[in-house]
Description:
Blueprint: H1 5-9, H2 14-27, E1 33-34, H3 46-57, H4 70-84, E2 93-96, H5 99-110, E3 116-120, H6 126-133, E4 137-141, H7 152-158, E5 163-168, H8 181-194, E6 197-201, E7 230-235, E8 248-251, H9 254-267, H10 273-284, H11 288-309, E9 324-325, H12 336-347, E10 349-350, E11 352-353, E12 363-366, H13 371-385, E13 392-395, E14 398-401
Parallel strand pairs: 1-10, 3-4, 3-5, 5-6, 6-7
Antiparallel strand pairs: 2-8, 7-8, 9-12, 11-12, 13-14
Helix pairs in contact: 3-10, 4-10, 5-6, 5-9, 11-13
The structure holds pyridoxal-5'-phosphate (PLP).
Pyridoxal-5'-phosphate (PLP) is lined by residues 38, 98-100, 124, 169, 173, 201, 203, 235, 237, 243, 248.
Amino acid sequence: MSLSFIARSIAESPTLRLNEEAELLRQRGESVIHLGIGEPKNKAPINAILTSAAILSRADVKYCPTDGTPSLKKAIITYTEENYGKVPDPDNVIVCSGAKQAIFNLLYTILNPQDEVIILAPYWVSYPEMVRMALGVPVFVTPEDGGLHPRMKDIIEAVGSATKAIIVNSPNNPSGLVYSDEFMSEIVEFCEKRGIYLILDDIYHKLVFDSRRPTPCYEFTEKEIEDSRLIVINGISKLYGMTGFRIGWAIAPEKLVKVMTNVQSQVTSCPSVILQSAAEGALTGIQSIVESLRLTIENNRNIIMSELSAFNGVKVTKPGGTFYCLPDFSSYNKNSVELSEFLLRKALVVTVPGKEFGMEGHLRLSYAGSVREITEGITRIKWALDPNSPNEIYIGNRKLVRDWL
Ligand SMILES: Cc1ncc(COP(=O)(O)O)c(C=O)c1O
């Protein structure tokens, strides 16, 4: 079969593959614990359901402007004003089918072949593939001090004449780290000065803990959106637990939004108007749902931290946001793909190998699920790896005996 070299080079999304594997095991009746999943368990906000149901019940569902319905764009402008202290013009907003599509549209819009995009490790798995699909070159920057927080020094060393953009994702998937205000202010200043696009993937921006406030990046620039190099990506997937609704957006200078809209118009046209109306319902409805989700996740973060702190040989940095952490399991196995497969086979726990995020030796664990899943998941991992843990365990109603340590 003849396939393009670009298409052949694109890797499958490891997280989506793991979801499918876990689902297959579940269908076979296995008691799988999913610590790989990147979505909260809550139901969609009632207002989102009501607004989208109202559109459906009119049975008149047609195309709308490619860059989004005026009323959703209005809600996004209000959201941006309330959360970022900036009022974008409607021409600065494009609504897409998920933050993922917003990022891809943007990369496709700004990159010439061989342009470089700096990606900070650990990074979200889709960035490198999206850069490659847009014919750019991902340049990975890993903190030289072995930590998880990026350092300006390492970034400046990696920037060259071909650097077109830097992607920053804080709160970060997969580490859960919230980057310091000092770092954010430095990178904003650097990009504005050097004319490098700074793509701020803010999809987790309100899921922060310990009374922290989400860092509004516009605080660090004096430029207006129109003249700024900052592009903010956001969406409803994580904050409202509406992953299946597939609505995200970008806030960018009008010139960029125009071209992104052309790109989108030739690929998908507008995002579904039903789902846009659900997003509008979420953004304009009662916001306590976000806070209650945040509190649940913060409690889950505390539980997983206390479970992991009692795990011999595992090092973990406390996450300040998201629903992920990225413990270092290298004292058990330096090969994270091997380790993740082993844990799925032996303990029926889904984890995501750190290698996929540019952090070999680590595993990404999600605490978006229930307290029972978190505690049982970690108990199973301990049983599989730690010789000091009891060597018998019940998984479902089966008693398993560890015979490999
Ligand atoms: C860092 C990051 N950005 C973007 C996305 C995609 O968001 P959406 O569901 O809006 O496409 C995800 C989803 O996992 C993510 O983790």
